[in-house]
Write a structure and sequence with these properties.
Elements (H helix, E strand, L loop, with lengths): L1 H9 L5 H10 L27 E10 L3 E10 L8
Antiparallel strand pairs: 1-2
């Protein structure tokens, strides 16, 4: 975005990577997240089916019955609807 604005104001093409390099040198860029980022508390990996489930409930308005409640259970490993 900065390179495009600079090119528009200067009237000549501006290299995006050069703008990035200059901004990094002047500490104007946010640091890049590492691949080994911190996990939120309580985070765990699911390694096999039927180990962990995610449950949710919502209300749905229907013409015939009024409000009905939808409860869904999803297996966290296979992402299949189990209940």
């Amino acid at each position: 975005m900065v390179a495009a604005i600079a090119a528009q104001q200067l009237g000549v093409p501006v290299n995006r990577k050069r703008v990035q390099r200059i901004m990094r040198a002047h500490k104007l860029l946010q640091p890049v997240r590492s691949l080994d980022r911190r996990r939120r508390p309580g985070f765990f990996r699911v390694t096999r089916p039927d180990e962990s489930w995610h449950m949710d409930m919502t209300k749905v308005r229907t013409a015939q019955h009024g409000w009905v409640y939808l409860h869904a259970t999803v297996d966290c490993c296979t992402r299949e609807l189990v209940g």
